[in-house]
């Protein structure tokens, strides 16, 4: 089973998303959005950006 995005309303009334792995562990979270539609677009942006993304190590 693939991971899934969950869109939810936070305590402050803003919309956020989290990406959960197939085991239920949260692996990424999104910023706060004013609307649910914006949060959904954020999910889509992450999906597109992650497809084939390289892993690059950097120094702190």
UniProtKB/TrEMBL annotation:
It comes from the Bacteria. Coiled coil: none annotated. Residues 10-57 form the DUF1508 domain. This is DUF1508 domain-containing protein. It holds the Pfam family DUF1508. Gene3D superfamilies: YegP-like (3.30.160.160).
